[in-house]
């Protein structure tokens, strides 16, 4: 019973270790990479899009930004040391009547900026689930 109280906090701590080690994010810009679209299937074997190790100082987040730059609608994925949040905004331009939607998505798991949804680390979820089950079993 006492070992349970030692193992559960250790397992919870280990669940967050993968996030502290080194983050891998998709890093691309649709202005220079035609495969870096807002939606892409990065699971295809011929896709060049793969998460890359973040080399910036204190990178903790993966970011995906969609919007309009220089009159071209595009997508930019990168690493960040700051949480930019999750938000979208409609934009109008004075020279025409079209409305564009720009969005920022922030997440903190490896490869999570490949789509518009924020995903959690599989290791974090499974370790947390195991710790909870172990705690409940040992508590009886």
UniProtKB/TrEMBL annotation:
<dbReference type="GO" id="GO:0032222">
    <property type="term" value="P:regulation of synaptic transmission, cholinergic"/>
</dbReference>
<keyword id="KW-0472">Membrane</keyword>
<dbReference type="InterPro" id="IPR031424">
    <property type="entry name" value="QVR-like"/>
</dbReference>
<keyword id="KW-1133">Transmembrane helix</keyword>
<dbReference type="Pfam" id="PF17064">
    <property type="entry name" value="QVR"/>
</dbReference>
<dbReference type="GO" id="GO:0030431">
    <property type="term" value="P:sleep"/>
</dbReference>
<dbReference type="InterPro" id="IPR045860">
    <property type="entry name" value="Snake_toxin-like_sf"/>
</dbReference>
<keyword id="KW-0325">Glycoprotein</keyword>
<feature type="transmembrane region" description="Helical">
    <location>
        <begin position="118"/>
        <end position="138"/>
    </location>
</feature>
<protein>
    <recommendedName>
        <fullName>Protein sleepless</fullName>
    </recommendedName>
</protein>
<feature type="signal peptide">
    <location>
        <begin position="1"/>
        <end position="22"/>
    </location>
</feature>
<keyword id="KW-0732">Signal</keyword>
<dbReference type="InterPro" id="IPR050975">
    <property type="entry name" value="Sleep_regulator"/>
</dbReference>
<keyword id="KW-0812">Transmembrane</keyword>
């Amino acid at each position: 019973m006492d070992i349970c109280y030692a193992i559960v906090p250790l397992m919870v701590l280990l669940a967050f270790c993968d996030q502290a080690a080194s983050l891998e994010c998709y890093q691309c810009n649709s202005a220079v990479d035609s495969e870096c679209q807002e939606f892409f299937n990065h699971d295809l074997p011929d896709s060049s899009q793969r998460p890359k190790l973040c080399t910036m100082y204190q990178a903790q987040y993966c970011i995906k930004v969609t919007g309009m730059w220089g009159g071209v609608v595009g997508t930019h994925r990168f690493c960040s040391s700051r949480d930019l949040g999750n938000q979208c905004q409609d934009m109008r331009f004075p020279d025409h009547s079209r409305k564009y939607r720009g969005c920022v998505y922030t997440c903190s798991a490896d490869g999570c900026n490949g789509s518009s949804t924020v995903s959690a680390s599989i290791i974090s979820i499974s370790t947390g689930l195991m710790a909870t089950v172990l705690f409940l079993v040992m508590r009886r």
